[in-house]
Amino acid sequence: DDIRVAPQGSAAKGIPRPVILIGPPGAGKGTQAKKVAALYGVPHLSTGDMFRDHFRRGTELGVRAKAFMDRGELVPDEIVVAMIEQRIAEPDCAKGFILDGFPRTVAQAEALDQMLSRAGFLEPLVIHVKLDPALILRRLTGRRMCKVGGEIYNIYDCPPKTPDRCDRDGGELVQRDDDREEVIRERLAAYHEYTEPVIAYYKRRDLVEDLDGSGAPEVVTHALFAVIDRKEERGSHL
User: Fold this and answer.
1) Measured between alpha carbons, how far is 48 from 7 in angstroms, rounded to an integer?
2) Of the residues 17, 35, 143, 144, which is catalytic?
3) pLDDT at 2 exceeding the cut of 50
4) What is the reported pTM?
């Protein structure tokens, strides 16, 4: 495995512009965002992680968001946008960052444009991870997670040695509620309705690079690094 990693003790080189990873459920956005963050020395900003951090700290935004989530409602854009704006103002974002799970709607994309402009960032590089719906279903319905250590398996493509048991600690492997087929189909429908227009929004400004997400994770990672490096070499003009 020759995936590049940041040299120990080296100064983080950063990336010249914010990177947005966008794609359907099961496209591996979180996995790939972590790889980019590690190589370039920039934060991986996941809205899910931000919610959990605000809940843990009991912030005003966290309390407001939790009230909506406890009722089974979507958290309003104004709360999500405020969390993002607070986060990108922190010093570790000065050399760039990668967004995963935001923006999900055109309204959020427009709000992000405004906050990036206010903070002095360049326009984002939007990487659209593409995946066939049949492969999405295979990946997500086959996913199992260890109840003890959180290790991830796939009963079709990366099964454990013993059915329903983790290779590392013997923990029970379970399927998340949102990995059931009927839920996945609902998530895909929501993605097509709300998020695909976001891709069109950015494509009109020539900010989108398509990335084939169907390969092995390390293959997708190499392709992702190549896209970012190519844009970096061309400087601030996409």
Assistant:
1) 29
2) 143
3) no
4) 0.85
